[in-house]
Amino acid sequence: MYKITKAEMLADKIFLMDVEAPRVAKNCEPGQFIIVKAGEKGERIPLTICDYDREAGTITIVFQTVGASTEKMASLKAGDYFDDFVGPLGLPSEFIHEDIEELKKKKILFVAGGVGTAPVYPQVKWMHEHGIDVDVIVGAKTKDMLILEEEMKAVAGNLYVTTDDGSYARKGMVTEVIKDLVNNQGKTYDVCVAIGPLIMMKFVALLTKELNIPTVVSLNPIMVDGTGMCGACRVTVGSEVKFACVDGPEFDGHLVNFDEAMKRQQTYKTAEGRAMLKAVE
Ligand code: FES
Q1: Is the same domain home to 140 and 46?
Q2: Residue 144: domain span
Q3: Residues 56-69: pLDDT tens digits?
Q4: Separation of 243 CA from ligand 1 center, angstroms?
């Protein structure tokens, strides 16, 4: 059993929890994920690790309620327990294997969208801890949907916040901020890391391809069981078929077939929706 030591609502339908899982906290790296199960018969939910405290032995997860299983998770409070909390899974972000001095020479842009801000955070924090300043764009639909702004501000070299409706900071999509930074402010980037909804990653990748910026995306949103068994996260990357949970979750954004990935995600949503209806019946 894994104790929840903190539970709070960050925004409408978006929740943060700290969970006691010392072995996961000791071994995890940015980019990896865990699988959590609430209740004996609960569904397995894969979530990218948002933060970790090796000393306290805790893992921070952030999730959005999209169906019955995540609604059940959201109902848990500090002091409650998860039945299962397995990890760390997936491959860590490639950065952590690179030479720090080489990495310091690179200009890196992180683009986070919505709840995707959570998995971007540990990567930016890791960069900060290693003396690497990076630019970060965080996009949210509205001011109320914006999460982890203060936390990100503390670790980002430069932080650019944008909301789709202009209710906070600048107005517009993250792609408009990228265009502004590159075309108007003369910024150049050696690599871009984009994590957020598939549609956002698709358009960021299309733009960065045009701008010639190599781009990494995280396909966590299409995972279902996270074990390589269900096949839901199968995706075409270039000419190869990959499984996000085993071969990823990070891939070359210029090679991912996003349209195929989005079709799969729709199937998942339908299954979650059905489970939700069952739960309220
Ligand atoms: Fe099921 Fe990857 S999430 S195979």
Answers
A1: no
A2: 94-218
A3: 999 999 999 988 88
A4: 6
